[in-house]
Each structure stands twice: as C-alpha cells, then as structure tokens.
Amino acid sequence: MTGVCVIGVGNPYRRDDAAGLAVARAVGTAAPPGVRVREHDGEPASLLDLWADAESAFVVDMVRSGAPSGTVHWIDISGGGDLPPPSPGRSSSHHFNLGDAVGLGRMLDRLPARLTLVGVEGADHRAGCGLTHDVALGVREATRRILRSIQETDRRS
After folding, report:
1. Of 120, 118, 144, 142, the residue nearest 132 (C-alpha)
2. Of the candidate ranges 61-70, 95-104, 117-126, the one whose mean pLDDT is the lowest
3. What residue spans define the domains of the chain?
C-alpha cells in the first residue's frame, strides 16, 4: 500500500471543466515526496487503476449543483459513506459518473481506505481554455484543503 494519490479529472479545452486538472497540477508542485498526482479524463473504470494501492485518494472534478461558482464541495466516502443522491444538474460536464466508479470499486474491493471527493463548482464549461475568476479561487481553496489534509495525515503517521 502506498501513501496518497490525488487525481484531477477534467478537460483542459472546456474552460472550468479543467478545475480538477488545475488542482492536481497545483498539488503536484507543493506536495511532499511520495504523493502520486495524476490527471484523468473521467473514464470510471480506469479510475480504479489510478487509486490502486493508495491508502488515501482525493478525486477532484468540476461539478454543477447550483451553488455559487468556485464553491468547494468536500465529500468523505471513507468507512462506507455514501455519495449524495444524484440530483438534476449535479454532475460534471463530461460523462464521468463518480458514483458508478465508487460503486464498482466497492464491489471489487478496490477502494482506498480513505477516499475524498472534491468538487469545484463550475460556471462555464463551453469550449475554450482558462478558468473563470471564481473557479480559479475555488481551485486555490481546494488545493489548500488537500495539502492541509495530506500534512495532517503525515503528522498522525
């Protein structure tokens, strides 16, 4: 079992949909040695391979739930916790269904001991590059929270 894995999900050519990728890149430049950082397009089955053998994993993606853009959602799935029920509008902008990936991981006993889903509320997922201002602020907040959580875990070890 290895330490921590951070997986940023998104599409760099769909504006705010790149929020998860931006968090992964920021964590990758500041994380302590040994933290695995990956970028991912959102295909659920291959996600299981990315967090394989990780003690703790963070999966970061842009979401749309109706909250103000830039809002950071933090969902701890550890210990059998459930995903919030699907609701209209609460999704990413690609065909990524994290609930299916978590369900498949549970069924195959391929979830990390600690799994945290981090969503950054997006505003613009049209074609183009660059995050909107509020989403860029949300990326910074998500990055800070993940790095703080990694540090707290290191102190407890």
Report:
1. 120
2. 95-104
3. 2-156
